[in-house]
Amino acid sequence: MTSDVVVVGSFMMDHLVYVERRPRPGETVRGLGFHVSEGGKGFNQAVAASRAGVTVRMLGRVGDDDLGRRFLNRARIEGIETDGIGLDPESGTGVGVPVVDESGENAIVVVPGANDQFTVEHLMAHSALVSDARVLLLQREIPESTAVRAAELAKAAGAYVVLNPAPAGPIDAFRGLVDLVVPNEGELAALARGSNVLERARSLSALLGGCDVIVTLGPAGVLLVTGEDSRVFAAESVDAVDTTGAGDCFCGNLAARLSLGDALASAVEYAIVASGIAVGRRGAADAAPVPEEVLLRLQARQRSEGDDEGRDDAALATVREG
Ligand code: RIB
Q: What's the CATH number where 9 sits?
């Protein structure tokens, strides 16, 4: 029953809209494309981890409706264990509306529906599934009490707990329960004080009781802070098509590689390459790559690493300034 990665999180059926630019208030614009696909931060991360080649189980709640059944089916196709996913008789399946502009940037509305009904009681009915995780992966799209209880169960059983605090919001209740927190720059700014990214990352670590921190900085790369040490990893250079779920792809791949025993730095390198591939494609979960694709690019990246040493130092200076 042991799973390499257990995701306790959300399901949102994404209705992706592609536009040249997002409308201003009161304005109507013509869209360039539309696509419906399974998403939600939890589901995207579960798919990314499963495609990375590890065993994944997801716990959460969908509606007892067509969209909910579509999720169960898609999870099985992706090789994700579904025995911890409940069907809510009252609320419909969560829905997301990502609006993606020409530069690949997104803005998202979610209507959580059944995700909001995923209670501690539902979780506890499957507590053994959480306790058997190597890595537990959490976000903030389900009730906080449920996510915190999952962290307590996993921590007590000796699992490694990763929190992606997205969307940003209070995380004090996770203090002492998290081994690694992975915000993006905006989430970090909302959660911690400091005059630059490095200071804010250190203060976020202190807030959570001293965990490691990884900050995803988009084209500026990724900052890793462990204890007194910090390191910036360069981003992949890509033409962004759709950034929806890029952070989820990063987190899912990171968790997968950590569950396989990678050191943090190697897992970060792998996850950067994987999410770099994903932003070059449309969709969220749909865009996650498989190891064959990642390893090819990772080898090329490692070959050019000598040339890039100065780039990492320059990036760290940027992080210290802003
Ligand atoms: O992180 C991207 C995800 O956020 C989308 O799939 C959307 O559903 C929202 O949950």
A: 3.40.1190.20
Q: How far is CA 28 from the centre of its chain?
A: 32
Q: Pocket of ligand 1, candidates 13, 17, 38, 244: which has the most ligand atoms within 8 Å of its Cβ, to mutate? A: 244
Q: Quick one: which of 103, 100, 106, 116 has its CA closest to 240? A: 103
Among residues 236, 214, 202, 243, the alpha carbon closest in space to that of 311 is found at 236
- Domain-located, residue 27: no
What is the residue range of 174's domain? Answer: 3-21+33-321
What phi and psi, each to the nearest 5 degrees, are found at residue 320?
A: -70, -30
Please tell me the total count of domains within the chain.
1
pTM above 0.90, yes or no: yes
Ligand 1, atom 8, lies closest to the CA of 40
Q: Are strands 133-138 and 212-216 parallel, antiparallel or unpaired?
A: unpaired
Which atom from ligand 1 is nearest to the alpha carbon of 12? 8
Q: Is residue 311 part of a domain?
A: yes
**Which residue's CA lies nearest to atom 10 of ligand 1?**
40
Number of H helices, E strands in the chain: 11, 13
Determine, yes or no, domain membership for 28.
Answer: no
Q: Which residues are catalytic?
A: 248
- Smallest CA separation from ligand 1 atom 7, residue: 40
Decide if 137 is inside a domain.
yes
Structure tokens at 108: 């998202």
On whether the CB atoms of residues 93 and 67 are closer than 8 A, the answer is: yes
- pLDDT (tens digit per residue) in 54-91: 999 999 999 999 999 999 999 999 999 999 999 999 99
CA distances from 50 to 34, 195, 252 (A): 26, 38, 8
Tokens 């592609």 locate to: 18
pLDDT in tens, 263-308: 999 999 999 999 999 999 999 999 999 999 999 999 999 998 765 5
